[in-house]
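Suppose you are handed only these lines of text.
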Amino acid sequence: MILRRRCGASDCLAWFFISGIALIFFLISSILYGTRTENPSLPRVVQEVLPAGRCLCQQSTTFECATCLDCAAHPPFVANTTRTEGESWVFDYRRDASNYGLDEVQCQAAFPGLFEEATRAKNYAKGKGMVTQKNLTDFDLSKGMVHAMIYDGQLRVLRTFLVDNINRQKAIASLAALHRAISAARDRPSIPNIEFVLSVEDLPAQPKKPLWMLSRRAGDDDLWLMPDFGWWSWDMPSLGAFDEIAAEAIQRERVEPWDSKKEKLVWRGKLNFAPKLRRKLVDAAKGKPWSDVGQVKWEDTEFKEPGAQFLGPVDQCSYMFIAHAEGRSYSGALKYRQLCRSVVVSHKLQWIQHYHYLLVATGSKQNYVEVERDFSDLSSAMDDLLAHPEKAKRIADNSVKTFRERYLTGAAEACYWRALIKAWKEVSFEPALYEKVEDGHKKKREQKRGVRYETFILYGYNTQLEWPKSAK
Ligand SMILES: *[C@@H]1O[C@H](CO)[C@@H](O)[C@H](O)[C@H]1NC(C)=O
Ligand SMILES: *[C@@H]1O[C@H](CO)[C@@H](O)[C@H](O)[C@H]1NC(C)=O
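From them, the structure of the protein bound to 2-acetamido-2-deoxy-beta-D-glucopyranose can be written out as follows.
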């Protein structure tokens, strides 16, 4: 006789409890495993529970920006500068690429469309009234932030909150680039006095604040974009000052012109920076004859996995096609990929950088190839490119003309910084150089705010991280 045991109330509860805990434990472990592992193939169930999070959401930004690049095709704005009196000035890559001191008219003439983002941020801020001192001080700095000021054409650091060396390096590189742009200004006294807070974190911790950031999503209207620290330099194997890498890419092109490039799509990156998104790329390329897509494991110098060896930014130029995928937010690798005379194949981007307005996905000015965020159309896009080599070559040439030889130059970077300063000034307050500090005997003493950038960079590591707290 089958004994039909009905579980008692407490047994049932315990059973539910235990299986509930087990399920939650399983889900959490799967997610942790899925987001951290570098294992190239994941069990189906782990793939399913991987959170899409910010890495594979529906929202993406497609740039409809005919206004930007197209105006570059019209007869260039004729700059009437005092230096070239009587002659019209036209940007010449070989001569002007590293000229950080183009004047405003030259900047406008050379880089149409580059200042869209500064203008957008300014117009948005205008709608909210002026940025006040309080807007910059009524919140605690979160990690990666630097509160700074430009006064009489000099950069001053007011406060920092940096948590580690990467944070510190990014902040110093950003300040250095800004300092270079204002030092080189043809008319330095015309640089307005401003006060601002910048952040070098990938993700905006406070997206509703008027902060200077490296990138933003379409909805982060309050943020102002600055060029990323990589234009100054980045301290990683095979990287360095941006113009140095550009020069190497040009050198490489001499020995390895278009026709000798591998007809393959290359990608190297870390999967756990954006597991779902990047795994889709790896999966979409798996087993394809045109694929040289592999993940990089920095720790593993042997790179046992086939196709997974480290490739420097210039080594990627040996391929006709270079895939691009965002990371935790934007990926700073895009600008290096755009230094090659190769076709950049990117998913629809969600994170905007200051120069992304110049990306053109269709038409005769096409300068990259755009695919879906899940890379479902990667295979057909690659088939099309391989079947139409003249089209691929045209896109690669356009990319060089637009990016390497124009909008990614140091000249463009410096022009953008100064345009950002000017746009910010139009909607923000006039800062004060002095503040009153307690003197101990009820008297207040006037003291200069902050410290000059030139002095700040001499401070030791610990002092730079949380300044001025650590100074006391
Ligand atoms: C260019 O500048 C010179 C000297 O400042 C001036 O005489 C001339 O009229 C200007 N030309 C144009 C086309 O604006
Ligand atoms: C500045 O602060 C005021 C008052 O809190 C607020 O109304 C305004 O929107 C802020 N401005 C910006 C640009 O965030």
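What can we learn from it? The longest strand covers residues 154-161. Residues 125, 128-129, 131-132, 135, 210, 222 surround 2-acetamido-2-deoxy-beta-D-glucopyranose (ligand 2) (CB under 6 Å).
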